[in-house]
Design goal:
Radius of gyration of chain B: 20 Å
Number of helices of chain A: 12
Oligomer: heterodimer
Structural class of chain A: alpha/beta
Organism (chain B): Salipaludibacillus aurantiacus
Helix content of chain A: 25-40%
Shape of chain B: globular
Shape of chain A: globular
CATH class of chain B: Alpha Beta
CATH superfamily of chain B: Thiamin diphosphate (ThDP)-binding fold, Pyr/PP domains
Number of domains of chain B: 1
Low-confidence stretches of chain B: 1-8
Cofactor (chain B): thiamine diphosphate
Largest sheet of chain A: 7 strands, mixed
Keywords (chain B): Oxidoreductase, Pyruvate, Thiamine pyrophosphate
CATH architecture of chain B: 3-Layer(aba) Sandwich
Strand order of the largest sheet of chain B: 1-2-3-7-6
Largest sheet of chain B: 5 strands, parallel
Number of strands of chain A: 14
Low-confidence stretches of chain A: none
GO molecular function, one term (chain B): pyruvate dehydrogenase (acetyl-transferring) activity
Protein name (chain B): Pyruvate dehydrogenase E1 component alpha subunit
Number of domains of chain A: 2
Largest interface: A-B, 46 and 48 residues
CATH topology of chain B: Rossmann fold
CATH superfamily of the largest domain in chain A: Thiamin diphosphate (ThDP)-binding fold, Pyr/PP domains
CATH class of the largest domain in chain A: Alpha Beta
Structural class of chain B: alpha/beta
Strand order of the largest sheet of chain A: 3-2-4-5-7-6-12
């Protein structure tokens, strides 16, 4: 039987394998080692990141390759850009994706554009690992899902894994990649377990996966919402509706074919994205299918997203902020209520 | 209570009573939050202020509701010192509709604009420009109000430190920047993450006064803040005060704090304790009797219990609150579900 580990362990393992394979790979970020220069912490019990994801790396690779930074995102993310452009292959941890507010210039105006502005004469093999996602009661400044913002920026690649297996293979691919990649880790997935092989493997960026095959309805999920889509699909099966669940895995580049092929087969599309609804990835995918797959559609495209408001703190509100299987079922019933070929 | 005789720091018996009460409110509120979080009652993250009481109280002793403060992710102490009600604070931490922010903000965004408390902040370094902005309002409207920016030693290395303080200095704004140097930014020691020996040393670069005080000593903070607040009110511009302090708990609840040496932790929790020190000062100056001090503690114990009960019994926000207060007004011409 294959080995079962958590999403968090899969990410740490990818970091270990990448750092063993290539000495140019380093990790930097706030407390990614933890307790820098505290004598009694040089060897063990250092934090390993605020959620413990990188715990143990400093013991194996030392403080020269696992660098604690001041709480100064513009400083170290900016430094990581040219650290990458001048021969290293850094992984910089932006603790929460919300903190991009403190360093967007370094990512958007520097890292993303160097290669193009310099006529293709530079490359920026930088990976930014960052936590996202609501459901942790972490309120408005620690819970957003900002992958759509980065997807809109040419020059940056965007990866959002949904399983431990994908997280490991995609992170290794992101680190190998010669372009800047923002790698999103949903903080509520860290303890989710799944089958993960021990060795080094990569999953190509820009290649989605069918997580559940089906014929009557396509549900595209992003990150954690792939699981919400699978939960909905299970309930739909009980109602006699055969749903296919697609995980694009990377949003930039986006595997357009896997989505269009699926809609060609099913004729119906629901996109589940926990980001706010305006200009998000669900909207982008809806536009793609309206543009290139209009003739395949038997029903309007539906998006299940967060509402147009910040992430609330109160559990009572945060629970209804997030997409759910129930919300997916509701839009599906709207999509098929006038369709006599399907009964629900 | 004894006659309100002036001491060297100008701390009257009445002021001492207020300060001791606020310090006790902070300590007992935070100890209670620590217990509740440990029991799994409170959602989310909490970052506790216990141990640093002398800073918030020593500074806010010079402020009224017209003055503004900006706070940090460790904001409960600033709230209490600025006069926020314990009931509304506790309810906010529970995510209840009766909370100071109607349950929308939680611990990291707790605020009370009417009290001049412009919010705890989830973004390290968020407060520097925000305080400068509030001070600009005071300057332009000639209100005489002062803005205080509380920030941690971690924020001292953030880019906003430079931009906010420089702006306040060139515009001669009535701001007091108060560093709460508790020795650790999360788990990272100050000495590792900062190129300076003292945060206050950086004041030189902005041509503003920079003073270092014992942040565990409420009287020392009080005296330094008095000068800086007066200076700001008199139109003489911003100041920087660095308070050397210590947090009794971890960066957040759940932090095992292995980066703190045991000896250091013990001395701060015991002989260097800010409440103990201030109580001793009050007694040595004869400002209040032991009975009066004990009475304050008992009243605060009761107030914290009342706050918890209020929070527990309060309702959760309603579903329609989710999308309320995103804007003041917003006309969507929404067609609803099609």
């Amino acid at each position: 039987m294959a080995r079962i580990i958590t999403f968090s362990e899969a990410i740490k393992e990818a970091m270990q394998l990448a750092m063993r394979k290539d000495e140019n790979v380093i990790l930097m970020g706030e407390d990614v080692a933890g307790g820098a220069e505290v004598d009694h912490l040089q060897d063990d019990e250092a934090w390993g990141g605020v959620m413990g994801v990188t715990g143990g790396l400093v013991q194996e690779f030392g403080r020269d390759r696992v660098l604690d930074t001041p709480i100064a995102e513009a400083g170290y993310i900016g430094a990581a850009v040219t650290n990458a452009a001048t021969g290293m292959r850094p992984v910089a941890e932006l603790m929460f994706n919300d903190f991009i507010g403190s360093c967007l210039d370094e990512v958007m105006n520097q890292g993303a554009k160097l290669r193009y502005m310099f006529g293709g004469k530079a490359k920026v093999p930088l990976t930014i690992r960052t936590m996202h996602g609501a459901g942790f009661r972490a309120a408005a400044q620690h819970s957003q899902s900002l992958y759509g913002m980065f997807t809109a920026i040419p020059g940056i690649k965007v990866v959002v894994p949904s399983t431990p297996y994908d997280a490991k293979g995609l992170l290794l691919a992101a680190i190998e990649d010669d372009d800047p990649v923002v790698f999103f880790e949903d903080k509520t997935l860290y303890n989710v377990k799944g089958e993960v092989p021990e060795g080094y493997y990569t999953i190509p960026l820009g290649k989605g996966e069918i997580k559940l095959p089906g014929n009557e309805l396509t549900i595209v999920g992003i990150g954690k919402q792939v699981q919400t889509a699978l939960d909905a699909a299970e309930q739909l099966t009980a109602k006699g509706i055969d749903a296919e669940v697609i995980d694009p895995r990377s949003l930039s580049p986006l595997d357009e074919s896997i989505i269009l092929d699926s809609v060609m087969k099913t004729g119906r599309l629901v996109i589940v994205d926990e980001a706010n609804p305006r200009c998000n990835v669900a909207t982008d995918i809806a536009a793609l299918v309206a543009d290139k797959g209009f003739d395949y559609l038997d029903a309007p495209i539906k998006r299940v997203t967060a509402p147009h408001c910040p992430v609330p703190f109160s559990p009572a509100l945060e629970d209804i902020y997030l997409p759910s299987a129930e919300k997916i079922l509701k839009v599906v019933s709207e999509m098929i209520e006038d369709d006599t070929t399907v009964t629900m | 209570m004894k006659v309100s005789e002036e001491t060297v720091q100008g701390i009257t018996a009445e002021k001492a009573s207020w300060m001791y009460q606020k310090m006790c409110e902070i300590r007992k509120f935070e100890d209670k939050v620590h217990d509740l979080f440990g029991q799994g009652v409170l959602p989310g993250f909490v970052h506790l202020y216990a141990g640093e009481e002398a800073v918030a109280v020593g500074v806010c002793a010079h402020l009224d509701d017209n003055d503004s403060i900006t706070s940090t992710h460790r904001g409960h102490g600033h709230c209490i010192a600025k006069g926020c009600e314990l009931d509304g604070m506790m309810a906010e931490l529970f995510g209840k509709a009766t909370g100071l922010c109607n349950g929308k903000g939680g611990s990291m965004h707790i605020a009370d604009v009417e009290k001049g408390m412009l919010g705890a902040n989830g973004i390290v370094g968020g407060g520097f420009p925000l305080a400068a902005g509030a001070a600009l309002t005071s300057k332009l409207k000639k209100t005489g109000a002062v803005a205080v920016c509380f920030f941690g030693d971690g924020a001292g290395n953030h880019g906003t430190f430079h931009e906010g303080i420089n702006l306040a200095a060139i515009w001669n704004l009535p701001v007091v920047f108060v560093a709460e140097n508790n020795g650790y930014a999360e788990a990272t020691p100050f000495e590792y993450a900062s190129s300076c020996t003292n945060i206050a040393d950086r004041a030189k670069g902005y041509n503003i006064p920079g003073e270092i005080v014992d942040g565990k000593d409420a009287t020392a903070v009080y005296a330094a803040a008095q000068k800086a607040v007066e200076r700001a009110r008199n139109g003489e511009g911003p100041s920087l005060i660095e308070c050397k302090t210590y947090r009794n708990y971890g960066h957040f609840e759940g932090d095992a704090q292995k980066y703190k040496p045991d000896v250091e932790k013990k001395s701060h929790l015991e002989e260097l304790d800010a409440l103990r020190k201030f109580r001793e000062y009050i007694a040595s100056e004869g400002l209040l009797t032991d009975a009066e001090l004990d009475d304050i503690e008992e009243r605060v114990d009761h107030a914290v219990e009342v706050a918890v009960k209020f929070a527990e019994e309060s309702p959760m926000p309603a579903e329609e609150d989710l999308t309320k207060d995103v804007y003041v007004s917003y006309e969507t011409h929404d067609r609803g579900d099609v």
